[in-house]
Amino acid sequence: MVDHARIEAAVRALLEAIGEDPDRDGLKQTPGRVARMYAELFSGLREDPSVHLQAVFDEHHHEVVLVRDIPFHSTCEHHLMPFTGRAHIAYIPDGKILGISKLGRILDAFARRPQVQERLTSQVADFLAEGLKAKAVAVVVEASHTCMTVRGVRKPGSAVVTSALRGLCLRNPATREEIMSLIHAPRRAD
């Protein structure tokens, strides 16, 4: 459970610490807004992603299942600043397939926590490999981090790419190449 009162008090103190008046018109409601925002941004801390494995179906499909360009947002745990991007999630089932919308929900369950991109990528891959008992899993995440683009080094336009490969993706170069070529294939024009 999120402690809204403690967040509001902390935001008031932060505003005072930077030299602002938390009682001026534009800031009076800010502590409450920030508390509600944090409850939303970090809702993954209170979500069990395994509920999304209830939409598993018996299906004898033994080839790649890929959902590309799944948008997500998360919060860098080092600076509490957002990072946003897209994930590509692929797996080769072993007799069980997952409802495809659940891949996005699983990604969100892990992204809506204080995070680092490397851990997020591995958590999704490990969860799917274990939960689906898939033959192969590949997760590739591309994101822009505001802790790098608007502060510090200030390099807008930069992207961080991480990958996590499990099962046949690690052991079989042909499987890895097939999945990566599907991830990076040209997008169709809509």
Straight-line distance between termini: 42 Å
Low-pLDDT runs of 5+ residues are none
> In percent terms, what proportion of residues is strand?
25-35%
H/E element sequence: HHEEEEHEHEHEHH
Average predicted confidence as pLDDT: 96
Q: What is the CATH superfamily classification of the largest domain?
A: GTP cyclohydrolase I, C-terminal domain/NADPH-dependent 7-cyano-7-deazaguanine reductase, N-terminal domain
Q: How many strand units?
A: 7
Count of separate structural domains:
2
Largest sheet: 5 strands, mixed
Spatial order of strands in the largest sheet? 5-2-3-6-7
- Work out the radius of gyration: 20 Å
CATH architecture of the largest domain: 2-Layer Sandwich
Give the number of helices. 7
CATH names the topology of the largest domain as GTP Cyclohydrolase I, domain 2
Helix percent reads: 25-40%
Which CATH top level class of the largest domain fits? Alpha Beta
Written description of the protein model:
Strand 2 (65-76) and strand 3 (81-92) form a beta hairpin. The chain has helices at residues 4-17, 30-41, 101-111, 117-132, 146-149, 168-171, 173-183; strands spanning 56-58, 65-76, 81-92, 96-98, 114-115, 136-145, 160-167. The strands form two sheets. The chain has a five-stranded mixed sheet with strand order 5-2-3-6-7, sandwiched between helices. The chain has seven helices and seven strands.
